[in-house]
Amino acid sequence: MFLVNKNQGDRPKEGFYLMSKDSIVAQVDALIASGGTVQSCLALIVGHFDAQTGTIHRLDDTDGRLKLIAHIGIPEVIMDKVTDIPVGKGIAGAAASERRPITICNIKTDTSGVVGAKAPLTGMEGAIAVPMIQEEHLHGTLGVGKRTEYTWSESETSQLEEVATLLCARV
User: Fold this and answer.
1) Counting Cβ atoms within 10 Å, is residue 77 exposed (0-12), middle (13-18) or buried (19+)?
2) Helix H or strand E encompassing 104
3) d(CA 36, CA 34)
4) Could you tell me which of 112, 92, 89, 109 has the C-alpha nearest to residue 101?
5) What is the full DSSP assignment across 2-35?
6) How does the average pLDDT of the chain come out, rounded?
7) Which of 49, 72, 144, 149 is the most exposed place for a label (fewest CB within 10 A)?
8) What pLDDT is stored for residue 34 in this prediction?
9) Which value, to the nearest 10 degrees, does the dihedral of the CA atoms of residues 146, 152, 155, 161 take?
10) Which pLDDT score is estimated for 7?
């Protein structure tokens, strides 16, 4: 259980209202239904997975690139690299182009070729990006990162995919 201020886009904080950690999908659905912002949804997701960073990118249909619309914990030193991403480049771009979750156990030691050169500057190790797809249309990507090496479980990945589908209505 943790406490969330639904009126702020920050990470969950004490002193507000209690939410169960049972179903992040139900929590995000309820937050969207109550008019929650994309930023507040991202804060809920990051908090649920005990992560330190999160991003939501919207696919810009005019130029086919991913545009950052919400973020938590992204260092200023790499902000220029994450605000506008070509589909196919980096973790978010790969998730968008392949239309499947991309997981990295340790960004600092990854040799897959997916991780961008500045990604280690985030200080994150375990990362996942999932495409936001609804009715076969790609709307963008949802990314979550942890400071420690981390392998995302099938259950966590599935939950993030479901949440990403819900977020399509907000982007």
Assistant:
1) exposed
2) strand 102-104
3) 6
4) 92
5) EEE-TT--SS--SSSEEE-SS-HHHHHHHHHHTT
6) 86
7) 149
8) 95
9) 70
10) 40
- Rounded distance, CA 136 to CA 24, Å? 23
Q: Six-digit token pair at 31?
A: 């937050």
- CB–CB of 54/44 below 8 Å? no
What's the chain's length in residues?
Answer: 171
Check residue 22 and give its pLDDT.
57
Q: Residue 99's closest CA among 132, 73, 69, 68? A: 132
Q: 10, 9, 30, 8: which is closest to 19 by C-alpha?
A: 30
Cα–Cα distance, 130 to 18 (Å, whole number): 27
Residue ranges of the chain with pLDDT lower than 70? 1-22, 118
Burial of 136 (0-12, 13-18, 19+ CB in 10 A): exposed
Which 3 state secondary structure label does DSSP give 153? coil
